[in-house]
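Structure in, sequence out. Go:
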């Protein structure tokens, strides 16, 4: 790729992470990491694998027992009509699955419709495969879902795929079965691929159900579904993801990229994945219930401590608060622009203010695409003490700066 890589953007989350290292005693609500630890079943399986010297090369697509367990899970939980474990391969996290999929699906110049706001590695991976990300807005007034006529109007003769991410990062929006059926119609009518990123499949609230697009009639043939152990089993640092696809040609290409970029996923980690799937699944429900309680704690705190400055409805899924910034808000310290480390925008000004004056990690909405400007993202998967500390710090910052009109809506 060489110089071409200079045109692939780096996520601003990296810049934020660097800023956070200069803050003493920070509240790390910037990165999408859970505060839980991986369940004992995962740790015990990895210990056993170490003791049994399972430290040698493995099959490229994954150890057979793990692929078998994933096939069962995809059939029973996701209702995807998987034929055999050959249709599944494990990857170094969901981000690697996305890289492999884009490399396998795209020709230079192929367009992929991506959400705006979006998780930056999505467009980044499309670009890295010489594709062209075409943003389609998600709308806050629709619970951060698409206007489906607008989505249809994004399809051109160059469109190769639609990337959907539900539950979504950064907005927490969850697409309904009806939404997915309309999207399936588009995919079939225009002979497209659906790239379904289901990283947050187990993080849905208020009794909402996650629907895997590949479970819809006929859609599995045109879908590549991406999953990860990161969020469901609090295994973010272990780097274990997987992907399911029926098309043998696409799978063969994916396998090549997998081989050339990893040879195989770390053996000990794969045995950890077996432990996660063979063990009790109680932790999945426990994590979800705790995340729902943290969501409510965080939104309650924002209403109290940032009234008139930040607002938004609690999301139906994922673990981010994507909050609207009152457009009248101005950062007291940033009248001195020399303090600014990021681009000049309301969301960057807010992020710099919260980080430098309140020690509160967050990500400016602008980093997730043009439609994200005017918003700010917090991760509420941190422990309750950290969330409460961040909220109190917010209260101290905003107490004296409540604008006169406190219910501004951004259209
Ligand atoms: C939308 C989305 N997809 C995929 C991932 C991949 O996660 P990982 O690479 O840790 O498996 C993430 C992680 O934050 C995400 O937010």
């Amino acid at each position: 790729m060489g110089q071409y890589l200079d045109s692939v953007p780096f996520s601003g989350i990296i810049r934020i992470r660097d800023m956070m290292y200069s803050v003493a005693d920070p509240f790390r609500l910037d990165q999408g990491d859970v505060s839980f630890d991986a369940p004992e079943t995962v740790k015990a399986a990895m210990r056993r694998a170490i003791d049994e010297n399972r430290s040698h090369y493995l099959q490229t697509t994954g150890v057979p027992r793990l692929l078998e367990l994933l096939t069962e899970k995809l059939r029973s939980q996701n209702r995807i009509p998987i034929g055999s474990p050959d249709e599944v391969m494990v990857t170094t996290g969901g981000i690697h699955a996305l890289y492999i999929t884009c490399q396998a699906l795209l020709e230079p110049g192929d367009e992929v419709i991506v959400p705006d706001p979006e998780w930056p590695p999505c467009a980044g991976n499309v670009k890295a495969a010489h594709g062209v990300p075409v943003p389609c807005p998600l709308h806050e007034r629709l619970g951060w879902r698409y206007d489906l006529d607008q989505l249809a109007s994004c399809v051109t003769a160059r469109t190769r795929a639609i990337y959907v991410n539900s539950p979504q990062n950064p907005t927490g929006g969850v697409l309904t079965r009806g939404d997915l059926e309309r999207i399936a119609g588009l995919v079939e009518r225009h002979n497209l691929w659906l790239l379904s990123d289901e990283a947050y499949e187990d993080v849905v609230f208020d009794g909402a159900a996650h629907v895997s697009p590949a479970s819809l009639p006929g859609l599995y043939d045109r879908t590549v579904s991406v999953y990860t152990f990161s969020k469901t089993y609090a295994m973010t640092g272990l780097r274990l993801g997987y992907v399911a696809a029926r098309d043998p040609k696409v799978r063969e290409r994916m396998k090549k990229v997998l081989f050339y970029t990893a040879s195989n996923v770390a053996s000990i980690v794969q045995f950890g994945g077996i432990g996660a799937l063979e063990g009790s699944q109680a932790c999945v429900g426990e994590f979800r219930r705790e995340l729902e309680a943290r969501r409510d704690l965080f939104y309650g705190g924002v209403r109290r401590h940032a009234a008139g400055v930040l607002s938004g409805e609690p999301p139906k899924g994922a673990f981010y608060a994507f909050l609207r910034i009152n457009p009248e808000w101005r950062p007291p310290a940033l009248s001195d622009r020399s303090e600014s480390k990021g681009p000049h925008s309301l969301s960057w000004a807010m992020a710099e203010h919260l980080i430098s004056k309140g020690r509160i990690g967050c990500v400016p909405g602008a980093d997730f695409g043009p439609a994200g400007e005017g918003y700010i993202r917090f991760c509420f998967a941190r422990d309750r003490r950290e969330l409460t500390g961040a909220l109190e710090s917010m209260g101290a910052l905003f107490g004296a700066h409540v604008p006169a009109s406190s219910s501004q809506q951004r259209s």
